[in-house]
């Protein structure tokens, strides 16, 4: 088998020192441009790839950066969370950072994950985990890990939190239904303790109360998955058939509900039921669905997260504890 090419091989091939090879791969290091070009060309010819992680750990000084940013995701299979991770990872890489995905399925796994992150020498943590325990915020602060969360707010205000105005999302849907003459409405909720799901429901109810209309029927799904939406609709088909409109806590639920209503009850959407989702994941725009939904401003969310991390790394003062962004109703075919 061909042995692994080392920096010594590149140095010998070019006729330079190992430190010159190291400087050629270090951003901002002092090295003549022509020499760097010769080293990089030789490295490509020989198939040399530097161990960036090991080199970072061996770099002296307190201001060293690993350029690793951990992204904690509660449900990788969740359409919105995977979509958000894709956007975050792309933007992090544009900023010279390497994202590390950590799938945290249960709250009790968080402590161990955070301790591992400290060992990896990550520069920061982005948590997309709605069930993130309060103790996790404390542990990150104790380990001096700069953190931004997208799942739930830190009640102490020490960890910056970026969110879409979920209450307003519910109000946007309620006003849309009212403008279309839709009065008998249901709400398919997600996680029982999910902050976003509860806030969207409260926003929906507030407008119906203001208008003196009948309060929305609550249909719990228990999670934010397509399957949960399909099953919730199947178990409540008779009730759903009496409704004019249905708002789902997320798009994945709405897509499951849509397919169930068509397959199990031969319902026509939107003729028999107005259906609205939330998030605006890529699948919502697919030709088979064309789902009307409340779009989260994902690009703005990502840029706010990067900005907050930059502020944390720079030890800036007056970093906002909560950044709330406005949603947008996207009207399609449902």
Automatic annotation (TrEMBL):
Keywords per UniProt: DNA-binding, Repressor, Transcription, Transcription regulation
Question: Taking every annotated instance into account, which residue ranges of this chain make up the domain HTH lacI-type?
Answer: 5-59
Q: Which SUPFAM superfamilies match?
A: lambda repressor-like DNA-binding domains (SSF47413), Periplasmic binding protein-like I (SSF53822)
Cite the InterPro entries for this sequence: HTH_LacI (IPR000843), LacI/GalR-like_sensor (IPR046335), Lambda_DNA-bd_dom_sf (IPR010982), Peripla_BP_I (IPR028082)
Q: Which PROSITE patterns does UniProt cross-reference here?
A: HTH_LACI_2
Q: Which Pfam families match?
A: LacI (PF00356), Peripla_BP_3 (PF13377)
Q: Which SMART domains match?
A: HTH_LACI (SM00354)
Q: Does the keyword Ribosomal protein apply?
A: no
UniProt name for this protein: Catabolite control protein A
Gene that produces this protein: ccpA_1
């Amino acid at each position: 088998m061909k042995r692994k090419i080392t920096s010594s091989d590149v140095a010998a091939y070019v006729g330079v020192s190992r430190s010159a090879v190291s400087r050629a791969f270090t951003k901002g290091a002092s090295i003549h441009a022509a020499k760097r070009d010769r080293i990089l060309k030789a490295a490509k010819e020989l198939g040399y790839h530097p161990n960036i992680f090991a080199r970072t750990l061996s770099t002296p000084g307190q201001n060293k950066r690993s350029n690793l940013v951990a992204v904690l995701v509660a449900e990788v299979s969740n359409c919105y969370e995977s979509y958000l991770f894709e956007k975050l990872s792309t933007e992090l890489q544009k900023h010279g950072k390497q994202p590390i995905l950590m799938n945290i399925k249960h709250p009790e796994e968080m402590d161990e994950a955070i301790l591992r992150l400290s060992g990896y020498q990550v520069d920061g943590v982005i948590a997309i985990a709605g069930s993130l325990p309060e103790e996790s915020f404390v542990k990150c602060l104790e380990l001096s890990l700069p953190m931004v969360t997208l799942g739930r707010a830190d009640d102490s205000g020490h960890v910056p939190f970026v969110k879409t105005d979920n209450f307003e999302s519910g109000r946007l849907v309620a006003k849309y239904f009212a403008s279309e003459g839709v009065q008998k409405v249901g709400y398919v909720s997600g996680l029982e303790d999910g902050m976003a799901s509860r806030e969207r429901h409260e926003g929906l109810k507030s407008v119906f109360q203001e208008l003196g209309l009948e309060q929305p029927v609550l249909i719990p799904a228990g999670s934010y998955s397509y399957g949960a939406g399909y099953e919730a609709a199947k178990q409540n088909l008779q009730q759903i058939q009496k409704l004019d409109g249905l708002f789902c806590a997320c798009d994945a639920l709405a897509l499951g509900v849509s397919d169930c209503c068509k397959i199990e009850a031969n319902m026509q959407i939107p003729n028999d039921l107005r259906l609205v989702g939330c998030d605006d994941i890529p699948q919502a725009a697919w030709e088979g669905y064309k789902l009307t939904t409340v779009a989260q401003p994902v690009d703005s969310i990502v840029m706010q997260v990067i900005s907050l991390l930059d502020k944390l790394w720079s030890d800036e003062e007056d970093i906002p504890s909560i950044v709330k962004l406005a949603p947008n109703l996207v009207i399609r075919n449902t």
